[in-house]
Amino acid sequence: MIRDGRDPAAITEAAQVLAGGGLVAFPTETVYGLGANASDERAVAGIFAAKGRPSDHPLIVHVPDAAAADHFALRVPPVARKLMNAFWPGPLTLILPRRPEVGAAAAGGQDTIGLRCPAHPVAHALLLACEQASPPVHGVAGPSANRFGRVSPTTAQHVASEFPSDLFVLDGGATPVGIESAIVDCTRGLPVLLRPGTLTREQIEAACGERVRLPDEVAGAAPRASGTLESHYAPDAKVRLMDARSLQTALDLLGPDAKAIAVYARSILRGSAGQMRRMPDDPAEAARQLFAVLRDFDATGVKLIWVETPPDAPEWEGVRDRLRRASAG
Ligand code: TXA
Ligand code: MG
Q1: Ligand 1 mutation pick, 34, 63, 93, max ligand atoms within 8 A of CB
Q2: What's the rounded mean pLDDT across residues 288-313?
Q3: Rounded to two decimals, what is the model's pTM?
Q4: Contact of 216 with 235, CB cutoff 8 Å
Q5: CB of residue 113 inside a 6 A radius of ligand 1
Q6: Does residue 231 fall inside a structural domain?
Q7: What are phi and psi of 120, to 5 degrees?
Q8: Per-residue confidence at 54, pLDDT binned at 50, 70, 90?
């Protein structure tokens, strides 16, 4: 059932569901998460079961503030502290060494843990209420609230459409960022950007004062993690990325046969595609819309989605990454 996330009674009830070992879907500024008490192994197993996700894939644990990170992190390396100070609350997940006695199931058995302090009023209220619940819940494990391999949800209705109707969903409206958090691994000496988000690599480097590596620059850094699998975030329709000229040529060739195709492009194109939508010129706006646009196209039953490749610029990296995965495989 969908409950109004601005209703304090709904927040209290949701915190009680989590304290009792149940699942609650909740909004964050990036995408909706499917939450469980991060310290309750059975509750965490419930997330993996509901999502249909392999249980050795680590989940992100949401905390209300930087101080709460100490409950899960064995230590906070200086670089991680700088990033917390700069970007928390916000769309940044930090991988830190894990206290061996907590969160093993949420961490997919790894000796590290992914922590994030979300900047969404409903998520924040929920996390605070969780600390007051009995028993208290010190962190909420929450992957994106979609079935494994599907597009992440940016509205409560997206979440409700993929899970049984008795799932408790807190509605916080459409999420303002629209793609998942950037993930920086702070356990390898040098910070490693495991997943790009809307924060650019330059912004992250400026805040931590050192170079940020990519996974392929660091031996053994490629994580066992669904957010980093090729062919992830995929709609039902097949996604193809093309530059504007190839797109126009393909549309011209198809002529009236383009009806079964949806097009999402920044450039103005001629043709009679079944669906045509403009991708915003502003990368933040494009990120905000991306997953809802893919879902809307799917709902019309098109078989192909042709997307104009976004610019090769740092502020587009998150959107490019998600589109690359949506079009893989
Ligand atoms: O914006 C977000 O990050 C959303 C919202 C709900 O917070 N969450 C999200 O979670 O995208 P999920 O489970 O769909 O993606 C989590 C990713 C994993 O796929 C993995 O890449 C990484 O986080 N991760 C989590 N813990 C990790 C760890 N200990 N080591 C390496 N990677 C980890
Ligand atoms: Mg996900």
Answers
A1: 93
A2: 96
A3: 0.95
A4: no
A5: yes
A6: no
A7: -135, 130
A8: confident
